[in-house]
Design goal:
The chain is of the alpha/beta class. The protein is built from eleven helices and 17 strands. The protein has three domains: 7-213, Spore Coat Polysaccharide Biosynthesis Protein SpsA, Chain A (Alpha-Beta Complex), CATH 3.90.550; 231-293, no CATH class; 320-407, no CATH class. Helix 2 (43-51) links the parallel strand 2 and strand 3 (59-62). Helix 7 (231-244) packs parallel to helix 9 and helix 8 (250-270) packs antiparallel against helix 9 (276-293).
Length: 414
């Protein structure tokens, strides 16, 4: 019998201790027996790892620079798993995330794996399956909605993995040089995808390997996803061009990126989220970053073939996964009971249904409960009809079916 590969889950965090705490709580519920956690963080993040009791044995590496590629390489150097998986500090994984994500590694030709990313409402997808063209632009691709799909890109293209939900064979990622620190926060995984494709490696895209991504505020964007600084985006495109775009195509390529960023800012102006003076400032920063990217030194250098520290597995006890659906008036009491069961080692999904047409929202609570709220007749999937006549029992069963595969649930609706 072939055993599951060992996995190092690498999380980079800087200046977002509350988000990291929530992420680690979600990681503590992963239903996978052979994984360790590597956190590369600023002092505030390190303090969180020392306080969280539900996840012992974390490998903590102090790093307080605004460079996610350098931080990921540091995590990679300390990671001892056969597979290294990456998730952002403002994301939470579904309990079956690792099991689905690394399953394609059973095929020797698969070097990378990428999953799907849900957005702030906990239901709609931010990112699904995408490929990259020679210009670094991402394009949607249709794959099986449930089964993992292994793709070998044609020449000049690559398979996109999202930075907050991706995994690689450690030895192959080290072999290609890891992440390039010239990309301090943007295009970092795109560059890795392009280099993997050039080396002829296959990538598996895994729809059931899902994380929920919150887009927390940072030095470069607000909580509403409005950019506050475009300098590093410009710099990253400058580096990307020198590595991947022929000289004769660079001017046209840059003009396309410039136009795209300006159009994005104009949309925010129309929505009242930016003023014209903000656009001028942001575009000036974009241009300055691009100029600096034309001279920025690139290349990640050599990485250690053997990890700095031995494998430090998280103590694993399987959790009993349960699904409960209740009517709205019982929601508060049901949530308290679900939180208690989580504290006792359970894995809880609670759906609270009101007699309305309200849209559904999913949240991972501070107590570790997967909480979904919405109307019996309202949308969960945003492609559903605006109003669907149904019963409480049928709606509960429908929501159970929607998430059962990512949480390994048993139905206990009432």
């Amino acid at each position: 019998m072939i055993s599951d590969p060992t996995v190092s889950v690498i999380i980079v965090s800087r200046g977002r201790p509350d988000a990291l705490r929530r992420c680690l709580l979600g990681v503590s519920q992963l239903q996978y027996s052979g994984f360790e956690v590597v956190v590369v963080a600023c002092p505030m993040g390190i303090a969180v790892t020392e306080q969280i009791e539900v996840l012992p044995q974390i490998k903590c590496i102090a790093f307080d620079e605004a460079n996610i590629s350098a931080a990921r390489n540091l995590g990679l150097a300390h990671a001892a798993g056969e597979i290294v998986a990456f998730i952002d500090d403002d994301a939470v994984p579904e309990p079956q995330w690792l099991r689905h994500l690394v399953a394609p590694a059973a095929r020797a030709d698969v070097a990378a794996m990428g999953g799907y990313v849900r957005g702030r409402n906990g239901i709609s997808f931010q990112y699904k399956a995408r490929t990259l063209d020679a210009q670094g632009a991402a394009h949607p691709v249709e794959i099986d909605p449930v089964q993992a799909t292994v793709l070998v890109p044609p020449e000049g293209r690559a398979i996109k993995t999202e930075g907050t939900n991706m995994a690689f064979r450690r030895d192959i990622l080290v072999e290609i040089g890891g992440f390039d620190p010239a990309y301090r926060f943007y295009l970092d995984e795109t560059d890795v995808n392009m280099r993997l494709a050039r080396a002829g490696h296959a990538t598996a895209l895994v729809p059931l390997a899902q994380v929920h991504h919150g887009f927390a505020a940072s030095a470069r964007r607000r909580t509403d996803r409005v950019p506050s600084d475009l300098y590093e985006i410009g710099a990253s495109w400058g580096v990307f061009q020198r590595k991947h775009i022929p000289k004769e195509d660079r001017a046209a390529h840059w003009q396309a990126q410039w136009t795209q960023e300006r159009q994005r800012l104009l949309i925010h102006i129309v929505a009242g989220r930016l003023e014209p003076r903000d656009v001028r400032r942001l575009m000036k920063g974009l241009a300055a970053g691009y100029a600096e990217g034309q001279t920025r030194r690139f290349g990640g250098g050599s990485l250690p073939r053997h990890p700095v520290l031995p494998f430090r597995p998280v103590p694993f006890t399987p959790r009993k996964a349960a699904f409960h659906a209740v009517r709205g008036v019982r929601g508060r009491r049901a949530l308290e009971a679900a939180a208690k069961r989580v504290a006792e080692g359970g894995l809880e999904t609670l759906v609270v249904l009101s007699p309305t047409g309200l849209f559904h929202q999913v949240a991972f609570t501070a107590e570790g409960v997967w909480l979904q709220r919405g109307g019996i007749f309202g949308r969960s999937d945003r492609n559903d009809p605006l109003f669907r006549l149904t019963t409480f029992k049928k709606r509960a069963a429908r929501e159970f079916g929607r998430v059962a595969g990512v949480r390994a649930l048993t139905l206990q609706a009432r």
